[in-house]
Amino acid sequence: MTVGDKSTGVATDGKLLKPSLDMNFSSISEAENYYKEYGMSLGFSTRRRSSYATARGPLITRVVFVCCREGVHKSKPSQDDQNDGKLKRKRNTSTMRTDCKAMLCIALDTELETWYVNKFIEDHNHGM
Prior knowledge:
InterPro entries: FAR1_DNA_bnd_dom. This is FAR1 domain-containing protein. Residues 73-96 are annotated as: Disordered. Residues 33-127 form the FAR1 domain. The chain has one domain. It contains 1 helix and 5 strands. It is flat, with a radius of gyration of 19 Å. The chain is of the alpha+beta class. The longest helix has 15 residues, at 28-42.
């Protein structure tokens, strides 16, 4: 990313800009690092949810980065303990998943060999 280039998300003063559909990145890792830094500056963590490849080969053409609170927790059914037939005691844990929809999706422009933002949702359903 170059400083002062809106297409890569860095303003002339060095601060990160909000992601927009006209941003371009030279690699997946550059986009991932940008979204991680952007998230940290606003108080949320990010992770890579999925990657999509072409049907004809292993070339990755789309990557989705999401808020770490994306998705919902799937509870597991209780199972009988093998030794004495009693139900196993469930651990008292909490989950951070809130089905947050915030995401950054990038796609590969095969002609220019650059990655561009093709979807950005900034709304979180939780406090930061």
